[in-house]
Amino acid sequence: MESSRYEALPVNIVKEYAWCPAHAWFSWNGPKPVLPGFSRVPRGNLDPLEAKLILERLGHRGHIIMEAVLEDEVLGVRGRVDYLAEPDNGPGAVLEYKFRGIWGDAEIVQTALYTVMAEHRYKAAFKGYIVSVSGVRVITEEEKREGVRLVYEARRAIEGPEPPEPGHDLARCRACVYRRICPWPGR
Ligand code: SF4
Q: Nearest C-alpha to atom 4 of ligand 1 is from which residue?
């Protein structure tokens, strides 16, 4: 499929790409799923006071913005992070809350990208955190580099003519909203 669009990629598309490249291709090019999909799980809220206390405990006392919109013209991505603490005598911070208490590669890529996007916007160092009931996961420098690399890889893949090969096990396909039209499940 030829794509004539050139617009900032939603961070969620890169996140989906990390989870399943074919899923990201369908989200970008394909029909709207009739059921809730990977990127459409309901958002859980972390109480703003709790977010503030967590960020303070982690050493971030800058002004906090809830649902901070980030647009990065250099990377060509846009998104909205749950909480952003502006730099204040030290690095700023982004905090993604996962209310289901789990995270994997896709959530790490998402939060790593928000961290890099915040660094570009503020021209300052930022730390990235995934927070859930099970604790706090700190994003590494290597993960930030990998997040940036995946932006370019994801854009190439979703602008390709066919859904790219997923390269993951089939357990993921069982509940996928694109299963009926995807050429890859069942292998
Ligand atoms: S069916 Fe499987 S391979 Fe196809 S988009 Fe869904 S998760 Fe990816």
A: 182
**Residue pLDDT, tens place only, 113-168:** 999 999 999 999 999 999 988 889 999 999 999 999 999 999 999 999 999 998 77
**Best CA proximity match to 176, nearest among 43, 42, 16:** 16
Q: How far, in Å, is the centroid of ligand 1 from the Cα of 74?
A: 30
Q: Pocket of ligand 1, candidates 23, 35, 180, 187: which has the most ligand atoms within 8 Å of its Cβ, to mutate?
A: 23
Ligand 1 center from residue 181 Cα (angstroms)? 9
Which CATH code of 3.40.50.2000, 3.90.320.10, 3.90.470.10, 3.40.50.1000 fits the domain covering 9-172?
Answer: 3.90.320.10
pLDDT digits (tens, 9 = 90+) for 66-91: 999 999 999 999 999 999 999 999 99
